[in-house]
Design a protein that fits this description.
Elements lengths: L9 H8 L6 H21 L4 H10 L11 H12 L9 H4 L4
Length: about 100
């Protein structure tokens, strides 16, 4: 397995040392893999079986990283402005349904 060395400031290194239980190498591997999968997904729209397995393990999907579409943002803003109904209990939701 290849090794990679990163340069960080002494201050940052000292902050990292305060989290002794964290496996920083594993975090770097996972985040790098996410970046590679995301870039591939954006270019091709395809995720390989191996990438799906990784995504499932991480409970993550490249779509999670995509920005919200403008139409969706507009719909959210519209709904924020609508009047809401205040309920005292969950049973009130179903009281008019028969």
């Amino acid at each position: 397995m290849a090794s990679l060395t990163l340069s960080v400031s002494d201050e940052f290194k000292n902050k990292l040392k305060s989290f002794l239980w964290v496996n920083w190498s594993e975090i770097a591997r996972e985040e790098t893999m996410k970046k590679l999968i995301f870039e591939n997904y954006v270019k091709t729209g395809i995720i390989t079986d191996e990438e799906w397995e990784f995504c499932d393990k991480m409970n993550w999907h490249p779509v999670d990283e995509l920005p919200l579409k403008d139409d969706f943002k507009k719909e959210l803003e519209k709904r924020k402005k609508e009047k809401s109904i205040k309920l005292k209990s969950v049973s009130q939701i179903f009281k008019d349904i028969k």
